[in-house]
Amino acid sequence: MADLRFSRFRAGSGCSTNWVPMTKSIAFGGNPLNRASEKRGNAAWLAAQRVRGLFLPFWKNQPLLAGEAAALLPGQPEWEDCLTVFLGLEGEEALFAVDLPDDPKPVFEGAAFQEMRPAAMILPARDCAIAGQAKALIDWHHRHGFCANCGGATTAEDGGYRRHCAHCGADHFPRTDPVVIMLPILRGTDGLDDHCLLGRNARFANGLHSAFAGFIEPGETVEDAVARELEEEAGIRIGAVTYHASQPWPFPSSLMIGCYAQALSRDFTVDGAEIAEARWMSRAEARARLEGAIEDGVRMPTPIAIAHRLIRDWAGG
What we know:
Layout: H1 43-52, E1 54-59, E2 62-66, E3 69-70, E4 73-74, E5 83-90, E6 93-100, E7 112-113, H2 116-122, H3 125-143, E8 154-157, E9 162-165, E10 171-172, E11 177-186, E12 195-201, E13 212-215, H4 222-234, E14 238-249, E15 254-263, E16 275-282, H5 283-290, H6 306-315
Parallel strand pairs: 1-6, 11-15
Antiparallel strand pairs: 1-2, 1-4, 2-3, 2-7, 5-6, 8-9, 9-10, 11-12, 11-13, 12-16, 14-15
Helix pairs in contact: 5-6
């Protein structure tokens, strides 16, 4: 059992002035670290940072939590051969993620490994953002141990932001998949309230209704993808598409591009395969459901999902 010092991410420390303020209301967004990408290729610099930096341990893609905070620990000699990813600088202090062997499960006094989704429900915004960054990178390394060009084994370089194939010389870099997630909006007429269309994915359990979503395909704009996905899943035609907000989603690594779409009619037809059912919902009803005032088996998205943000912001006017 390791008896190590824990440290919270410190909100008062300095960060590079080049970064925009964090999006506090969206889980995994607003990462406050200076990623110092210009230093990743300097092996000597990285080695020096490892000696005095702090590490967030992961085990089976689960971050280590100390209570309701991410557990930051000094580096340990036995971690020398483990996959380590440089996350960035908090002021002058370097932060890393370390991927511990799957078996046996490491034990840390006063801390425990937690699945990322429930962890995101309790972590402070900055801890959540940094843990999400770490999970996405570690998961990418797990899935890219071999070269897609020749099949040769690859090695981690540049602090974990590149994998190199010594056999053919190819370099591979972490990927983020763009996903559109959208809420069709029907404008009210003759004094009627505006409505949004929510769908229940066939994989969703317990009555969960949410926004529609899908991966952007090659050759598509965001607007094209929104229109195609809504036509495929709900048989609904749309007009204008408006960007609202985005969210890095580390399951395994996507960028959720949140939009509103102008519905041209009230008619819809779900595909019956991916989407099992859909329903129009007024602003008043959406607000009530988000507040838990209606209990009839229809559930709304969890607060850590950008779908919750899309519905909440629209319902609030």
